[in-house]
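ligand=zinc ion
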Amino acid sequence: MQLIDIGVNLTNSSFASKEREVLERAYAAGVAQLILTGTSVQGSEQALQMCRELDESGERLFSTAGVHPHSASDWTQDTEQQLQGLLKENAVRAVGECGLDFNRDFSPRPRQEKVLHAHLALAVALQLPVFLHEREADERLLAILREYRDHLPGAVVHCFTGEKRALFSYLDMDLHIGITGWICDERRGTHLHPLMREIPRGRLMLESDAPYLLPRSLRPKPKNGRNEPAYLTEVLREVALHRGERPEDVAAHTTACARAFFSLPAIQESATF
Ligand SMILES: [Zn+2]
């Protein structure tokens, strides 16, 4: 069995100097390839650096480059060019994390929208897929995406936590859906359970969003309370349960989907899996 974690915040300080151990545990759990999320120019540079330093093969670690909507206010005249440089690197496979977050509103909404437009224009120009963040902003996100969708190779709404209406609108626009351990949360994730069957094969991908979103159903619970990509197997278990599919099947089709979406190489299953 192989899994691909399409969103891990490996540059987060809580993983500092433990990145290699975290990756070894991920590989041992069957997480064969990982996409390191970039959420700022500096963070995207760091993620690319980690891909180079921690993956001699050049086949397991890849990254994204973008500015998170929380930090849209940090966007300057230079940002676009800096991102463009990063996005031309071979290990960088998507534009993002970018999008709209009207839940926390850490940056003013008009600013978030302007910065999202800039990301989408970059993705069109470079013909790269987009890694999208959306919280309580599906209608505006859909309206903006509609202007670009025909010219974008693909876009994934990462960490989907919305309602059926938003899911169906995203699927109608031929978007991909990323599911995290949010679905393992008995307090706020159960509305996602019946939606799992509605996502067609080839549109569904799995992600840890580590160190955030430790699956609450995980047993035994890790003492440090920190999520890591090795626990993606718990997200797999929960998604498979609600789709009525075997975990092996969900692993196979979500991995094939992620490999196609991010243009990742196929890799041999190692003996340790
Ligand atoms: Zn996000």
